[in-house]
Amino acid sequence: MTEQPSPWARPPAGSPDPAGATAYPTATPATTQSALPLTNPTGYRAGAVTRSAPMTLPPISVPAEKPPDPAEKPPDPAVRNRRMMWWFGGTALGVVAIGVVVVLAMAMTGGGSPFSKRLAGPTDTRPDLAKLCPPPSEDAGSGAPAAPPPPGPRTVDAESGISYAAFGDPWLPWHDLWTKGTLHVSYRVGQYFVTENYLDEAGFQSEYLASVLSGSVPAANNDALSLDLECTGRQVAADVRAEYYPQPNTMDVLREEQTTLGGRPAWVTTFRMHFHRPGLKATDELVGLALVDVGRPRAAILYVSIPGTHHQYDWVVDSVLNSIRAVG
Predict the structure, then answer these.
(1) Using DSSP, how many helices (H) and how many strands (E) does the chain show?
(2) How confident is the model at residue 184 (pLDDT cuts 50, 70, 90)?
(3) Distance between CA 92 and CA 298 in Å, rounded?
(4) What pLDDT is attached to residue 298?
(5) According to the UniProt entry, which residue ranges have a biased composition of type Low complexity (predicted)?
């Protein structure tokens, strides 16, 4: 059986097609690269980046080192030292001159000399009364021998160093701390009773009191136990008038003297204050003050006040002052 050729079959290249034509033309042999002459372009060199042809630089001539002159001598050490001394000396003179100019300028402008300053002394830590009333150069002594306390109930203020007579109804015990005035006298112990209720300047309900209060105030240095009784007594009285009562006011002095209370030196002042405060019925008050030297840096103080609405208790002022005794 005769084999039928595929309709897509083609004879080998260059062989005749059964149809009568050449199947497809034979490829022309390619010319090999080695057969072509190679030429390099002029003026450039091959590389990643095109650049100009290298330049030819003339050779660098290095001058020959001059040989040392055998006739030249090394520097003289003495000359070098003199030059250094002149240099240091000139610098020192310049510094001194600047300092003189600065001092003269400060003196002429009123700035004073920088060397005239003095260290500040220690701060004065003395109590206010000790500053106002320095202690005397001689000790006034402890006074007369202490008399026994009068009979009856007593109020004892061990912290202040005194005791004094206590009273019955309407007097009540005082247990609060009340500090008053520029001298900051602290009252801790005593008695009181309410004489009237009133509205103060701020509109609050307040109580006006009769009082017998004791406390103490720093009046001497730690190394000085004696007091200038007259000076300190007057200062305390002035502080009471200025700080305890409405302003303006007037004062009638009834008693003002140095005396002895319970064997201890003391300054006693009694006076009647006159004042006016809106809403307050009392317009005057009997006041008694005793400043007692109890042999401590703090002086004991007894403050007694009887408002004018209760004159029937005026006798309490003298009675309680005469009952003072030192304790402890």
Answers:
(1) 4, 11
(2) confident
(3) 62
(4) 86
(5) 16-39
Annotated domain spans of the chain: 151-326
* Strand, helix or coil for residue 256: strand
Q: Which CA distances in Å does 273 have to 142, 284, 313?
A: 32, 5, 16
**How many angstroms separate the CA atoms of 163 and 160, rounded?**
9
Report DSSP state, residue 34: G
Q: What is the pLDDT of residue 46?
A: 39
Confidence of residue 274 (pLDDT cuts 50, 70, 90): very high
- Separation of alpha carbons 11 and 309, rounded Å: 157
Instruction: Using the Cα atoms of residue 132, residue 135, residue 137 and residue 138 in order, give the sign of their dihedral.
Output: positive
Mention every residue, 6+ apart, whose C-beta is less than 8 A from residue 172: 191, 192, 193
pLDDT at 118 over 80: no
Per the listing, tokens 């005469």 go with 322
> What pLDDT, in 10s, does the model give residues 219-233?
765 555 667 888 999
Residue with more model confidence, 100 or 258: 258
Tell me whether strands 205-218 and 298-307 are parallel, antiparallel or unpaired: antiparallel
pLDDT over threshold 80, residue 264: yes
Q: 10 Å Cβ neighbour count for 311?
A: 11
Read off the tokens for 42.
Answer: 């002029």
Please state which of the four CATH numbers 3.40.50.1820, 3.40.1000.10, 3.30.1490.20, 3.30.565.10 is assigned to the domain occupying 151-326. Answer: 3.40.1000.10
Q: Considering the entire predicted model, what is its pTM?
A: 0.61
Provide the token pair at 17: 């097609």
CA–CA distance, 319 with 286 (Å, rounded to integer): 13
- Judge contact between 209 and 195, C-beta under 8 A: yes
